[in-house]
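Why show two proteins at once? Because comparison is the fastest way to build intuition. When a single record is shown, students tend to memorize it. When two are placed side by side, the eye starts asking what differs. So, the first record is below.
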Amino acid sequence: MSPILDGLRQAAALLLSRDPEVWAILWLSLQVSGTATLVALLIGVPLGATLALARFAGRGLAVSLVNTGMGVPPVVVGLFVSILLWRSGPLGELELLYTPAAIVVAQAMIAAPIVTGITLAAVQNVPEMFRLQLLALGASRTQMVWVVLREARLPMLAAVMAGFGGVISEIGASLMVGGNIKGQTRTLTTAMVLETNKGNFDVAIALSILLLVLVFLVNWALTWVQQRRAS
């Protein structure tokens, strides 16, 4: 218990000192995971709505693939993205490996199935009679989809929270495609592992506290919006 308490005290001192490297890592983590979550929303919301509202051959297989993607280990995604971005890979000419962009790609692939699956469930919970009534009243297909998405917007906020929470806290894919390069691709989670392996538990604890606070603040803001609209 004593080493933990000592580590907490040293972590508090480190945070209060506003160490530029620590805050640079925090800012990079927020940028990368925020961008990845946005990309996942742009992909997952339309795809989830399509799977919920459309009926076509192979739909069951597509839904099963989405549900499987929600549980794919991040290291598998990291391996796949690494192969794509490797020098001899299909996208090697872009030279994105070991850059923040590579982490965004990997994290977006992790978050997209989560957003898609939750959006699918949220849209499916809108009664079918409601959709039919909209069409009967003269709404176009596009207008109907837009209204349905508005009706499902509150549970869909859970997709944002789940997607962001899933990528801000992952480490396998970020380490594989980013390389944990100081000042370039070092995020909160990869820095925590590095400092722990070096025995710098005070720094690791400080980074973990920052990660927890960051996740709490983002989820608190989204929960406030969700509950305010619900009321």
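Second record. Ask yourself what differs from the first in the token line.
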Amino acid sequence: MFEAAKELIEGEYTDTVSEGDATFGGIHGEWEIETYAIYGVFRTRGTLFFKGKIGYLHEDVSSTVGGFGATGSDSGLSLGIGAGLRIGHHGSIELEYTIIEEDVDYLSVGLNYYF
């Protein structure tokens, strides 16, 4: 079995690939989000592992509904949980659920390389 550090620091950047749907008062529009974060991460040992993370996240959000646009930004606490499969000593595949803020969260699949 591969052994890896149990506690790590992760930096993360996310951006919208496809704009989301937004509706306000029956009028349809679109939204997008960009985030930057730094997390303290705990992973269990072994080839199959579980993970928890807590950190600081900054987000920039923009939306357009009915021809009118709005933008905003916020920063604060972010949490996540996940599971993964180690590939050798320097890589893994992970499935993760992250809470960005009270009403924004996401599910991701990632391929990671450890330095």
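One difference worth noting in the second protein: The first strand starts at residue 7 and ends at 15.
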